[in-house]
Write a structure and sequence with these properties.
With about 220 residues, the protein is mainly alpha-helical. It contains 8 helices and no strands. It is flat.
Length: about 220
């Protein structure tokens, strides 16, 4: 490695890491919170088999899973202003990432809910519990233990997908790498450096996921 490239990488690393911590990580957290809320609502509607709402949820999942994330970002950020709806880059990316991943997570949670014996639902009714209380106290805790590994994988996947936000000018870590590369023209080195920081973040999340699985395994749920 020549001195020029080494100097560029040393200088760019703290800048990329800063944007990773200040933008990429918050974008992941906020988007994941939206995804989890959407997924939980959609999964519960399907589990409760609310006829009309269930069909709406199935349509949402079908559309989101059948179209590319990049296209969804472009529709929201570049397309919606045509009908008078304009969003700043960060909230646009946050909403699209949240609703995109929410469709996949909804299926994960739905499968976990259906893995819980229906007999427990009936037992809850027998002792006088309402449907919300049965879900909160009996079904959801068991379903969460089953779904936890897949939901953890979704967060790791979402962190990597935040790089797509660069296409709508969100100044996250990958976009910052593009900006620096536009000045110094060292694509291989800079993009490998960005990939290394993504790998670092994902490794931390993987460790947290494994810790969570071990904690949950103590309650007879997930086996790490």
């Amino acid at each position: 490695m020549d001195e020029r490239l080494w100097g560029i990488l040393v200088d760019s690393f703290p800048k990329l890491l800063e944007y990773g911590i200040k933008v990429t990580v918050p974008l992941t957290i906020f988007s994941y919170a939206i995804a989890l809320a959407v997924a939980l609502i959609v999964a519960l509607i399907q589990y409760a088999n609310v006829k009309v709402l269930r069909q709406i949820c199935r349509f949402y999942i079908w559309v989101v899973r059948g179209t590319p994330l990049l296209v969804q970002l472009y529709i929201v950020f570049f397309g919606l202003p045509g009908i008078g709806i304009k969003l700043d880059p960060f909230p646009a990316a946050m909403i699209v990432l949240g609703f995109n991943e929410g469709a996949y997570m909804a299926e994960t949670i739905r499968g976990a809910l259906e893995s819980v014996s229906r007999g427990q639902l009936e037992a809850g009714y027998c002792v006088g519990l309402s449907f919300p209380k049965i879900m909160w106290h009996i079904v959801l805790p068991q379903a969460f233990r089953t779904a936890f590994p897949a939901l953890g994988n979704s967060m790791i996947s979402m962190l990597k997908e935040t790089s797509m936000a660069a296409t709508i000018s969100v100044m996250e870590m990958f976009r910052q790498a593009q900006v620096i590369n536009g000045r110094v023209y060292e694509s291989l080195g800079l993009y490998c450096e960005a990939a290394l920081i993504y790998l670092l973040f994902c490794t931390i999340l993987t460790r947290v996921q494994r810790w969570g699985e071990k904690r949950l395994s103590a309650y007879g749920g997930v086996r790490a």
